[in-house]
């Protein structure tokens, strides 16, 4: 009987095993495949900001310039700027050098060699869109401290950034910073001298005389607080198309300090444009408006307007500044000669014709080559009919 029970048990166990195996084969066992983790391609966004900047040269107001603007008992310079205003107003920032000081009519206007000009000219320039003004040049002290103080107080009433001339050491030591389109910028301004007129002792704030030490001190103060540093340099030799060795040395030095754009004035004529490392160097823009005439083949009447885009890129907390879209156009300082010199106008060469100067094509060719003297990749806007 025991054997029978054992056999039955074994048969039952065998049958159960067969049933289990069969059941397992028939049953669909769900197996989970590992989920594919879709890694997001993290597109590191680059935040880009842009400022457009245009620059012109010296506003040197001889008496014939402001007399031409005097109509119906007021100084109105708007007609002198009618060709240039629509261009300037397209830019975020617009620079010029106020060569003859705007001391105003209250102290008496004056011409060469010690200039003083009506403040209404500043009104017209601001109305045209200029908002960066250099006040340090060899004529800053022409009419003494009173004219400087009048000038500085006048510019305080305007929404512009000025540099190079101040009413106190406190003002001079506080480097102004402005911001537009998310880009912080500053303007510094220096002159080589003041035509032999001594700066009053204890009042060195009246005008910034250049020295390597002064420039370094100012730049060190501000370089970690701004994205872009512009430096206006009143330097060089008048009526000379090539920069001096000292200009080149100073340009290299300022570049080594981290200056982004060097804006040269004083020679009254155009000098070349080039890059030193990442620094754009405009050795001289020439005049903007004046009554200088045919000195050395009209060159004081042929001028330069340079523009560039300032691009700020932010990525992973790092900021990169680059300059793009460099553009150059020649300007012509036109006026009619007679018993009085009249009808002053600043005219872009793109709007020139023989009625303004029959020799304008040769002048264009000559001074375009000056601009490109150091860098043949620099371009000058062509004349429409060339």
Q: Radius of gyration, Cα only, in angstroms?
A: 34 Å
Number of domains: 1
End-to-end separation in angstroms reads 125 Å
Q: CATH homologous superfamily?
A: Metallo-dependent phosphatases
- The name of the CATH topology is Purple Acid Phosphatase, chain A, domain 2
Q: Mind describing the biggest β-sheet?
A: 8 strands, mixed
Supply the CATH class: Alpha Beta
The average pLDDT is 90
Q: List the secondary-structure elements in sequence, H or E.
A: HEHEEHEHEHEHEEHEHEEEEHEEEH
Content of β-strand: 25-35%
Structural class: alpha/beta
Strands, count: 16
Shape: globular
Number of helices: 10
Low-confidence stretches: 1-10, 20-42
Q: How much helix is in the residues?
A: 25-40%
Q: What's the architecture in CATH terms?
A: 4-Layer Sandwich
Q: Helix and strand layout, with pairings?
A:
Blueprint: H1 2-26, E1 47-59, H2 63-69, E2 70-71, E3 74-75, H3 85-88, E4 93-98, H4 120-128, E5 132-134, H5 144-156, E6 161-163, H6 169-173, E7 178-180, E8 183-191, H7 212-222, E9 228-234, H8 245-256, E10 261-265, E11 270-276, E12 279-285, E13 287-289, H9 295-298, E14 302-315, E15 318-336, E16 342-348, H10 360-371
Parallel strand pairs: 1-4, 1-13, 4-5, 5-6, 8-9, 9-10, 10-12
Antiparallel strand pairs: 1-14, 2-3, 7-8, 11-12, 14-15, 15-16
Quick overview:
This protein is an alpha/beta fold and 386 residues long. It has a single domain (47-371), classed as Purple Acid Phosphatase, chain A, domain 2 (4-Layer Sandwich), CATH 3.60.21.10. It is built from 10 helices and 16 strands.
């Amino acid at each position: 009987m025991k054997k029978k029970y054992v056999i039955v048990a074994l048969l039952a166990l065998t049958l159960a095993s067969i049933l289990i195996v069969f059941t397992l084969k028939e049953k669909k066992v769900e197996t989970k495949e590992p989920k594919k983790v879709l890694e997001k391609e993290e597109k590191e966004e680059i935040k880009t900001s842009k400022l457009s900047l245009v620059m012109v040269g010296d506003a040197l107001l001889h008496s014939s310039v402001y007399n031409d603007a005097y109509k119906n008992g007021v100084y109105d310079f708007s007609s002198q700027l009618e060709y240039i205003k629509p261009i300037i107003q397209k830019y975020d920032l617009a620079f010029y050098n106020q060569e003859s000081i705007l001391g105003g009519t209250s102290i008496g206007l004056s011409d060469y060699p010690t200039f003083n000009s009506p403040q209404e000219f500043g009104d017209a320039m601001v109305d045209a869109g200029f908002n960066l003004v250099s006040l340090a040049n060899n004529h800053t002290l022409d009419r003494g401290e009173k004219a400087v103080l009048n000038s500085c107080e006048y510019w305080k009433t305007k929404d512009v950034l000025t540099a190079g001339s101040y009413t106190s050491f406190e003002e001079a030591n506080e480097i102004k910073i402005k911001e537009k389109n998310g880009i912080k910028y500053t303007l510094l301004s220096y002159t080589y001298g003041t035509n032999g007129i001594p700066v009053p002792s204890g009042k060195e704030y009246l005008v910034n005389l250049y020295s390597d030490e002064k420039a370094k001190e100012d730049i060190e103060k501000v370089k970690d607080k701004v994205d872009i540093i512009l430096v206006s340099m009143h330097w060089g030799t008048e009526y000379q198309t090539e920069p001096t060795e000292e200009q080149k040395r100073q340009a290299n030095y300022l570049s080594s300090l981290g200056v982004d754009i060097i804006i040269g004035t004083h020679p009254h004529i155009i000098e070349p444009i080039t890059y030193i490392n990442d620094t754009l160097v405009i050795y001289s823009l020439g005049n903007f408006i004046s009554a200088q005439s045919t000195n050395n083949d009209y060159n004081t009447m042929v001028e330069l307007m340079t523009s560039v885009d300032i691009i700020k890129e932010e990525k992973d907390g790092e900021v990169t500044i680059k300059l793009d879209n460099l553009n150059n156009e020649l300007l012509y300082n036109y006026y009619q000669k007679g018993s009085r010199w009249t009808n002053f106008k600043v005219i872009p060469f793109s709007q020139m014709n023989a009625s303004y100067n029959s020799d304008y094509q040769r002048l264009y060719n000559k001074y375009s080559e000056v601009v490109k003297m150091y860098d043949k990749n620099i371009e000058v806007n062509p004349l429409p009919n060339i």
